[in-house]
């Protein structure tokens, strides 16, 4: 790596020289797209960094960043890094206690936030963590009557910075020049699936290694457009919207709000797209709902050409031999179905799309590739900059996460755990040498905690979290996430939690998708008062049972997984929610927490009961608590004979 480009602030300066008039950031504000060139971003970051310096922020200090994806919040990251400081993005929807934990753990005294909502949250946190002494806010709406001395607008902070810059000539440039690749570039807190979050320290060198590797692998250029809408505190956004953007110099587009993402995506037409499986699941659910509402001719056309796509679409995308008849049928389908569908989803211009953060069901994966979306999986974690395995074009396997990425060494421990050695591995957990020593062994391998295996061509398959993989009483391997992903392929199922370790059968909790099942119910004239009422409806149970039994039929065809068919299930009376501790902020199931919280339901499933009453405490967005109760029905599902593998 060139020594003059070993930090992000230096790369920002380089883009300002090489492509000063090219658009670096866009943001939709009040329905209009605003743009900033690389030259303008350099000026904005310089003014902001100098403003922070005027307030006493400097090398080794941490800056909290809270809000939705906004250009100024990305600039705040670069401003902190310019001074040798470290940005600490927080999940904007985190409850007060979680946010206070991160602020205290990272010893944060400075914060830059999006708007009044985040200002209020930080001010209210003073009782839990009184250490915040300076808060700057981007959106000034609603802030007119605030008189706290620690508050100032983003614009005022930049104006302060411009004055400081004039009074201290050369100070900013010296600070940027002092930065090293080994400096911490960001602290990203883990999702806390099994305990308190840990601060992952990633250096400029590690992030640039991950960014450069991905850019080279997929031949990305400064002509790409990416939509940045995922939480800034998530490593996936850090990799794509910061590291790769600062390596390649492409354009980062920020939507107006979470509610306008699909509309804004259609307007931008990203060429490079990243989303966790949940987003792709929601897109598919939306498509299926629309098709249910469509006329009979349109529905028949859709299902006919989707059958063609399933048969040959993925092969055509991969450049594999396909018969002329199939090619002609697929071309017709592209005109009538696939092209319009991709346009509605905002995927028309996508050249490369990635998913990560959780395993994606093979059926969901196949759907997108079959309609011509070059969707690929990547595998990684916060500790590895989300950079471990990538899927090369033309060599995609639906049940693998690909080959080790350039510069990455992957091997399996004797117990099947995936071990990784990479230039993108974290420097360590923030002030947790004990946890760092547990995660990275003496040979430099990071222990991912995932159980995996290599196929004959060297592709890595992730089975599940190593801690979650168990065995049933019959000796069969039990991989709950594998089963749950099959269930979640159905648009009617939003979340699922499977149980079976050290048991004689597999049972499951199901969360219905309120939008999909609500639409289904309305078309059938089924009245319901809300989620709890709809979830308990007998016809909803029939719908869910049909999905469960289709999964069982699929599992029966897999010799290793055939014994893990779901025998009993229930539909939960509430949605699993991060605010209730049941999911992480990245919507990963906190399995042990759920098992403890709903132990009475698990016991009812395995004791053969037909129903079980439960009352559950829930938290509302405004901080209040309430309760929801229901008498949950428990039903059996049909299992199928296991098809034994040929000798």
Key structural traits:
alpha/beta, GMP Synthetase, Chain A, domain 3, 647 residues, five-stranded mixed sheet, 28 strands, 21% strand, Rossmann fold, globular, five-stranded parallel sheet
What would you note in describing this structure?
There is one protein chain. A five-stranded parallel beta sheet has the order 4-3-5-6-7, with helices on both faces. Helix 8 packs across helix 9, helix 11 packs parallel to helix 17 and helix 12 crosses helix 13. Helices cover 39% and strands 21% of the residues. The longest helix has 22 residues. With 647 residues, it is α/β, with parallel strands linked by helices. It is built from 21 helices and 28 strands. The chain starts with 7 loop residues before the first helix and ends in an 11-residue tail after the last strand.
Low-confidence stretches: none
Give the fraction of residues assigned to helices: 25-40%
Q: What spatial form do the alpha-carbon principal axes imply?
A: globular
Helix segment tally: 21
CATH architecture of the domain at 3-203: 3-Layer(aba) Sandwich
CATH third-tier fold name of the domain at 3-203: Rossmann fold
Strands, helices and their partners?
Layout: H1 8-18, E1 23-29, E2 32-37, H2 38-54, E3 62-66, H3 71-82, E4 86-90, H4 96-105, E5 110-113, H5 116-124, E6 134-137, E7 151-153, H6 154-167, H7 171-178, E8 184-189, E9 199-203, H8 204-217, E10 225-227, H9 235-248, E11 251-254, H10 261-268, E12 272-274, H11 277-293, H12 296-317, H13 324-345, E13 352-355, H14 362-370, E14 375-379, E15 389-390, E16 403-404, E17 409-412, E18 417-421, E19 428-429, H15 433-439, E20 446-454, E21 460-465, E22 470-471, E23 477-478, H16 480-488, E24 493-499, E25 506-512, H17 514-523, H18 531-536, H19 538-556, E26 566-571, H20 591-597, H21 599-606, E27 611-619, E28 625-636
Parallel strand pairs: 1-11, 3-4, 3-5, 5-6, 6-7, 10-11, 12-13, 13-14, 25-26
Antiparallel strand pairs: 1-2, 8-9, 9-19, 14-15, 15-16, 17-18, 18-20, 20-21, 22-23, 24-25, 26-28, 27-28
């Amino acid at each position: 790596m060139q020594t003059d480009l070993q930090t992000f602030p230096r790369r920002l300066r380089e883009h300002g020289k090489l492509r000063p008039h090219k658009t670096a950031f866009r943001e939709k504000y009040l329905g209009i797209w605003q743009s900033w060139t690389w030259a303008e971003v350099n000026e904005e970051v310089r003014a902001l960094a100098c403003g922070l310096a005027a307030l006493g922020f400097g090398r080794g200090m941490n800056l909290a960043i809270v809000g939705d994806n906004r250009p100024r919040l990305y600039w705040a990251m670069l401003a902190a890094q310019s001074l040798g400081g470290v940005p600490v993005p927080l999940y904007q929807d985190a409850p007060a206690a979680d946010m206070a934990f991160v602020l205290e753990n990272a010893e944060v005294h400075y914060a830059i936030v999006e708007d009044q909502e985040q200002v209020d949250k930080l001010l209210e946190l003073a009782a839990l963590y009184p250490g915040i002494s300076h808060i700057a806010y981007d959106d000034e709406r609603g802030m007119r009557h605030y008189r706290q001395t620690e508050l100032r607008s983003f614009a005022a902070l930049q104006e302060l910075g411009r004055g400081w810059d004039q009074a201290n000539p050369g100070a900013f440039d010296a600070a940027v020049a002092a930065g090293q690749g080994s400096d911490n570039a960001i602290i990203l807190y883990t999702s806390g699936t099994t305990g308190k979050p840990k601060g992952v320290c990633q250096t400029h060198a590690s992030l640039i290694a991950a960014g450069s590797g991905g850019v080279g692998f997929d031949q990305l250029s400064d002509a790409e457009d990416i939509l940045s809408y995922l939480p800034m505190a998530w490593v996936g956004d850090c990799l794509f919207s910061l590291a790769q953007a600062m390596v390649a110099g492409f354009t980062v587009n920020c939507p107006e709000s979470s509610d306008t993402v699909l509309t804004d995506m259609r307007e931008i037409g990203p060429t490079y797209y990243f989303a966790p499986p949940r987003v792709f699941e929601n897109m598919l659910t939306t498509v299926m709902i629309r098709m249910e509402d469509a006329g009979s001719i349109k529905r028949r056309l859709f299902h006919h050409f989707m059958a063609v796509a399933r048969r040959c679409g993925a092969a055509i995308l991969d450049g594999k031999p396909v018969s002329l008849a199939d090619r002609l049928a697929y071309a017709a389908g592209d005109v009538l179905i696939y092209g319009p569908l991709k346009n509605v989803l905002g995927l028309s211009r996508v050249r490369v799309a990635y998913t990560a953060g959780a395993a994606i069901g093979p059926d969901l994966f196949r759907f997108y590739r079959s309609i011509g979306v070059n969707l690929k999986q990547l595998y990684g974690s916060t500790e590895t900059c989300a950079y471990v395995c990538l899927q090369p074009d033309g060599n995609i396997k639906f049940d693998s996460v690909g080959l080790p990425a350039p510069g990455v060494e992957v091997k399996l421990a004797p117990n099947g755990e995936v071990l990784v050695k990479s230039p993108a591995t974290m420097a360590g957990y923030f002030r947790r040498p004990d946890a760092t020593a547990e995660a990275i062994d003496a040979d430099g391998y990071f222990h991912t905690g995932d159980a995996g295996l290599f196929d004959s061509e060297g592709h890595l398959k992730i089975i599940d979290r190593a801690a979650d993989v168990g065995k049933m009483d019959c000796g069969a391997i039990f991989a709950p996430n594998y089963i749950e992903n099959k269930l979640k392929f159905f648009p009617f199922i939003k979340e699922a939690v499977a149980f079976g370790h050290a048991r004689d059968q597999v049972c499951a909790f199901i969360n219905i998708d309120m939008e999909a099942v609500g639409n289904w119910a309305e078309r059938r004239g089924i009245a319901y008062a809300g989620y709890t009422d709809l979830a308990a409806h007998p016809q909803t149970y029939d719908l869910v049972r049909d999905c469960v039994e289709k999964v069982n039929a699929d599992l029966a065809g897999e010799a290793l997984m055939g014994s893990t068919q779901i025998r009993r299930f229930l539909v939960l009376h509430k949605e699993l929610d991060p605010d209730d501790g049941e999911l992480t902020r990245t919507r990963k199931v906190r399995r042990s927490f759920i098992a403890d919280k709903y132990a009475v339901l698990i016991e009812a499933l395995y004791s053969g009961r037909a129903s079980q009453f439960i009352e559950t405490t829930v938290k509302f967005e405004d901080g209040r608590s309430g309760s929801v109760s229901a008498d949950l029905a428990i039903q059996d599902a049909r299992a199928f004979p296991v098809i034994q593998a040929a000798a």
